[in-house]
Amino acid sequence: MSAKDRSKEGSMKAITANRLRDGEVVFLGDGGRWVESFAEAALFPRDEADGVLAAAKEKAERERFGVDIYAFEVVEQDGVPVPATMRERIRTAGPTVRTDLGKQAWGKQAWGNQAA
Amino acid sequence: MNHIAPGARAGIYHYDEIDRQFVAERVEQFRKQVDRRLSGELTEEEFKPVRLMNGLYLQLHAYMLRIAVPYGVMSAVQLRKLAEIGRRYDRGYGHFTTRQNLQYNWIKLEDTPAILHELAEVDMHALQTSGNCVRNVTTDPFVGAAKDEVVDGRVYAEILRQWTTMHPEFTYLPRKFKIAISGAESDRAAVRIHDVGLLARRNDKGEPGFSFYVGGGLGRSPFVGKLVREWVAQEDFVAYLEAILRVYNQYGRRDNIYKARIKILVHELGLETFTREVEEEFARLRGPKYRLDPEVVEAIRQHFAPPPFEELPDHSDALERARAADPAFANWLAVNVAEHKAPGYAIATISLKPAGGIPGDATCDQMDLVADLAERHSFGELRVTHVQNLVLAHVKKDELYDLWKRLDDAGLGSANAGLIGDIIACPGLDYCALANARSIPLAQAISARFADPVRQRTIGELGIKISGCINACGHHHVGAIGILGVDKKGTEYYQITVGGDPTLTTAIGDILGPAVTETEAVDAIEAIVDVYLANRRDGAERFVDTLARVGHAPFKERIYAAD
């Protein structure tokens, strides 16, 4: 189920990290797979997020994949799930002062599901 | 290692084989540490302090690598290398910081050993740019060129680099430790907002030495550095500093990160007790071992010998013709060019603050251009300032017009040094993992609002400084107008302070009133400026002086009138 569909179910959380080898912002997607695009992030009900987060941290460290792993709040805006805070919106897109950089600068095709 | 000597340029310290071997060994150590992290041999908990000791942070979008520019001075060769690294490993630009360093924002961990290897080829590194150690020492960007210089701050900053690097007592301090040195009568290094600030002074006999200010700092608890000793002889420079560091190491708090800086220790012990402890330690240390050997000092001084200035008349006909013919150049000359100690030369500040631009950012093409211009016009060296600009310190007056035209063509010709457009801004929430609010967009909006150079000069000296969180990397506490970004339930707000001062008369600004929204902030700044202009005396009274005379009330009334 996409992020858009799931966020309609209520207050949700997504899980994010920076990829160890290059620092790229990644999100936990369906099936425990890490993806680069927030559009492909899995959303979790608040009461499930802690458990998923703990497992993701353990797995990411074991696989040497990600660092600084945490969950963040997602809200729905105009029918689209978006991070609740400016901080996470900036992480999912890139610097607001350099829209030529970060994920926001990817070509449209780059917003598709990217196995990380 | 393919070593590329930075060149026998004026004002650049030349590494010897010991320096080079040490830096090369550190690169290889870090290469192995990165390998061990990527292979899983080291956990993140184990690796994090190691990467921080090599200047590598994790920020919002990627790793950030902070490169040391020792005392803010570098060669054209070194700047070209920074440009090359920015192109190859980053996104084509770099960010000059208030610590006179350079940061790349899009670094990959796996590339970092190669980057450090390339930096070492030009005697550069990222050591002492992070961690609880003595950080890269900063100094006056006009060093070696200013008319009011008492001693050459580079010599003592270099002595501290050699003294503190790998010094076991200074590598695991309670907290980071920042030292600034001003070798001139004017303070262009903001010495009293540092853990230790050194100000060159002559004693009654005319002998040069240093005043020691201790316990300054911004952040959550801002303090102005207190005068601990009026005059310390140059030969006792290291001994006195070591005495301060020993007292800090012994009594500084390690149980609470918010109370670990020396400013808290000085505050809690009280100046009298702190000074007594330092003096007792100094008395124990003072002696041959800690006395600076004049021969060693002289050898270091030789690295900073004046460049081969030509004997020139102080007046330049070419300059005066250009000044008369080109008003934009005349404006830049009046604002960005300072007097030089050598006749016929001038000090040129290159503003990295174009109207609407990102303070401190320079593209790699701009870095290459400045490197070329440094070679052509300033003996191949340049400086980074703590207000995030660059300086060519030794430019012939005859050549200033050519220099400015080249700069202006590349977007580097803004005439705003020290004016309202010369804004310090930290990276803020656009990049920084610690930030609560964005700093850069506000800086851009303010500099765009006050873009008119005539208006800027009419307003005169007025520093705006913006921080995106209470850590105060944007020095907002000492801005004539300071702006602190705060987060209120997910919305960015900006708290305005007024009356800060980063010079010898250092002062922490006062909060003017409730925080304003991002959209209100630029109007609020303009309202403050309008009130100032309406109240200032003789058309020339400085903002901080008008504020001191009329108080906060007229400013508050204007900004919060509708509340």
Automatic annotation (TrEMBL), chain B:
It holds the Pfam family NIR_SIR. Transmembrane segments: none annotated. GO terms for molecular function: sulfite reductase (NADPH) activity. Its EC number is 1.8.1.2. Residues 130-283, 423-559 form the Nitrite/sulphite reductase 4Fe-4S domain. InterPro entries: NIR_SIR_4Fe-4S, NiRdtase/SiRdtase_haem-b_fer, Nit/Sulf_reduc_fer-like_dom_sf, NO2/SO3_Rdtase_4Fe4S_dom, NO2/SO3_Rdtase_4Fe4S_sf. Keywords: 4Fe-4S, Heme, Iron, Iron-sulfur, Metal-binding, Oxidoreductase. Coiled coil: none annotated. It comes from the Bacteria. Residues 63-122, 359-409 form the Nitrite/Sulfite reductase ferredoxin-like domain. PANTHER family: BLR3264 PROTEIN, FERREDOXIN--NITRITE REDUCTASE, CHLOROPLASTIC. This is Sulfite reductase (NADPH) hemoprotein beta-component. It comes from Azospirillum picis.
